Each structure stands twice: as structure tokens, then as C-alpha cells.
Automatic annotation (TrEMBL):
Pfam families: Amidohydro_1. Substrate binds at H46. Residues 1-197 form the Urease domain. The gene is ureC. This is Putative urease alpha subunit. InterPro entries: Amidohydro-rel, Metal_Hydrolase, Urease_alpha_subunit, Urease_AS, Urease_asu, Urease_asu_c. NCBIfam families: PRK13207.1. It comes from uncultured marine thaumarchaeote. Keywords: Hydrolase. The active site is at H147. Belongs to the metallo-dependent hydrolases superfamily. Urease alpha subunit family. One of its GO terms (molecular function) is nickel cation binding. It comes from the Archaea.
Length: 197
């Protein structure tokens, strides 16, 4: 509660509306409900904290009870399940999927499949937009820095390279063109660039 109140106080002087998504990764609902009661406008599930089927279900249950939103960054390494397991855990409920392009994170290599679900609001982040001359070249350094990877460790480099797929980045452009993905965010605190949205 204290942290959420400080965040809300920090933006009171700005003539904009702010909403804060709070940590949604908890298989029990009590802590999630506490954050919403403290002023969070929704919950964010993130792979770094374990986006398991149980945490997905718990966050969506709280959202249904409190009429708030849930956003998800799915499991790139497929440690907690695959894209079909995530779709099953979502169970037809409404959710916003960050990184539907797959290069910034999310089930590799088939997260884009999720854009075909009627209850899912897919979005991209701007590191992959637009797909142009330097898009692929800049990704490796961006990935290494943002995920605290070491370029001297071959496994770190392999992991970073596995997330940079020209095919899915190019397909993302087409999905935006046809409206299958209709939102984009800056991801400015990670791989994105806030000035390009």
C-alpha cells in the first residue's frame, strides 16, 4: 500500500491521468487484491517472476472480482508451459499481451498465435517497429544490456540471438497492417525507446 500511494503522489502534479499496473505474479489472490485496493488500476504478469498457469489464473480471478485489467509478458523460455498452456490458463478471459511480436519476449517462437484469440488484446513494443534497415542489427546489443547478459558468455549470446527472429519481426508489420495487432507501447524501461511511440 505504501509504495503504491507514493507512486500516485509522485505524479499528482502532472496534468495527465496515470494508472499503475502492479505485480501480478502470485498464485494466491490476497496480495493481488491488496494492491488493487491500494490504488493499482490493474496487474502485470511478467516472465521474470514466473508467469505460470496458476499466477495467470489468480491475476485474472482478481481482475474479474475488481473490474481491473491484466497485462502479461509470457514465458520466452517456455519454462512454465507453451503458448497453448497460456491460452488454456487465460480461459477465454480478457487480457492484454505485451510483446506479441516475440522479439522482446514471450513464448518462442509462436507467441504471435495468441493474436488470433478473440479475448486477447495483443500489442507490440517499439524495438521491432518499424522493421527496417537497422532493426535486427541493433537488437543484440539492446537485448544484452536490458537483460543484464554478458557478451563474454556464449550461453548469454545464444539466448539473446534466439529471441531476435527476422521472420516474426517482419510478420509483425503485416499483423499491424491488417489490424490483428493494433497497439504499441514504448517499453521504455527495458528494450524500448520512449521517443519513438
Amino acid at each position: 500500500e505504501w509504495n503504491i500511494h507514493r507512486m500516485i503522489e509522485a505524479v499528482e502534479e502532472y496534468p495527465l491521468n496515470f494508472g499503475f499496473l502492479c505485480k501480478g505474479n502470485d498464485s494466491r489472490e490476497e496480495a493481488l487484491l491488496e494492491q488493487v485496493k491500494a490504488g493499482a488500476c490493474g496487474l502485470k504478469l511478467h516472465e521474470d517472476w514466473g508467469t505460470t498457469p496458476a499466477t495467470i489464473n489468480s491475476a485474472l480471478n482478481v481482475a474479474d472480482k475488481t473490474d481491473t485489467q491484466v497485462a502479461i509478458h509470457t514465458d520466452t523460455l517456455n519454462e512454465c508451459g507453451y503458448v497453448d498452456d497460456t491460452i488454456k490458463a487465460i480461459a477465454g478471459r480478457t487480457i492484454h499481451t505485451y510483446h506479441t511480436e516475440g522479439a522482446g519476449g514471450g513464448h518462442a517462437p509462436d507467441i504471435m498465435k495468441i493474436a488470433g484469440e478473440p479475448n486477447i488484446l495483443p500489442s507490440s513494443t517499439n524495438p521491432t517497429r518499424p522493421y527496417t534497415v537497422n532493426t535486427l542489427q541493433e537488437h543484440l546489443d539492446m537485448m544484452m544490456v536490458c537483460h543484464h547478459l554478458n557478451p563474454s558468455v556464449p550461453e548469454d549470446v545464444s539466448f539473446a540471438e534466439s529471441r531476435i527472429r527476422a521472420e516474426t519481426i517482419a510478420a509483425e508489420d503485416v499483423l499491424h497492417d491488417i489490424g490483428a495487432i493494433s497497439m504499441m507501447s514504448s517499453d521504455s524501461q527495458a528494450m524500448g525507446r520512449v521517443g519513438e511511440v
